[in-house]
TrEMBL record:
Record keywords: FAD, Flavoprotein, Monooxygenase, Oxidoreductase
InterPro entries: FAD-bd, FAD/NAD-bd_sf
Pfam families recorded: FAD_binding_3
Protein name: Tetracycline resistance protein from transposon
Lineage: Eukaryota, Fungi, Dikarya, Basidiomycota, Wallemiomycotina
Gene3D superfamilies: FAD/NAD(P)-binding domain
Amino acid sequence: MTKKLAIIGAGPAGLCLANTLIQHTDLDVQVFERDAHINAKPQGGSLDVHVEAQEALRAAGVYEQFALHARCGDQEDVILDKHASKHVHMRAESGYKNENENNNKNKPEIDRTALRHFLCDALPEGVIRWDTKVDKVEQATQGSPATIHFDGNKHSFDLVVGADGAWSKVRPLLHTIPPFYSGVSCYEGNLRDASVKQAQEDFSDVFCNGTTFILAETDGLMVIQKNSGDCYKVYVYKSKPEAWAREAGIEEPSALRAAMLDDIKDWSPKLHGVVRALNIDIFKRAMYMLPSGIMWESKPSITVVGDAASLQTPFAGQGVNLALIQAHKLAQSLVSHKENQLLAVQDYEKWMHDEANSKMTLTWTNLQMFMNKGAIAKLKQFVA
């Protein structure tokens, strides 16, 4: 009999899982996404795709598309202090070593927008239900199918996978621990036409073919990240009260730019120049996370992947990579244990709890290091 699977959320985890599972004809896969269309909202900046996540994309049948969009040359890391003095420069050819890949190809960069597009394009038409807001997910009794309520309708599925991010509708059916505020918020902006602006104001000391980290330690962190299309993403992370991201009065681009400049007022003038060169689409947001070590009793018709399972801040670059690997592992378990779905979910979640705990602990440790005294010295010691 054909099993009906619902995936809530068309992010990297949900789409990778859908592409892997549709290869099996005895699985009927449906993806529910609240966005009206694929370009409804920005997808964020570039990310480096680790070897295990590349294997997940290979299993999903999209590795060739990944290879077309991946940028193997954009793997430099530069560490500056807030006065723009350079402390570390890790070039791709010497700074990355992995026995499974060539040194300059083990963690290629890719734009999140490109990743989402080719994952969507690989799915047959009709698999993704765009503009569909899931109102509620419920399970009447342990072992019964799960029911999704949306658009005034409800449908039952043999398995519902929550790939619906930080504020998942599925997660509360597994445990009652909500995301909490990490203590850090950020500004996010885009510096487009970077080569033109580079000619107008010299950014050579702060731009690189990869990511520049400006560590002001207790005064915050700036990240300048190369993306495709002659664009750099710029983030400024600061320790702020949770309500800061919702405060009125600094929503307009000019007000946000002024607030960013004020927050780095005693930093290098070169970094002020970067902020002044940003395009007008500047945002502010609070960073939320789940605590590491969460566990729950597995249910046969409900599970979670990605941020719905292991929400974390970006301070270790693990979020999307872990999401793709989780999708791969869940698909493997479902296929290996087709006759026993509870065993499949248990197999996946046992692995997931351990893997997520490791990555989330690393991310929290990095956040504490980046935002406190001694960060530059610790990173230099780590590199050495």
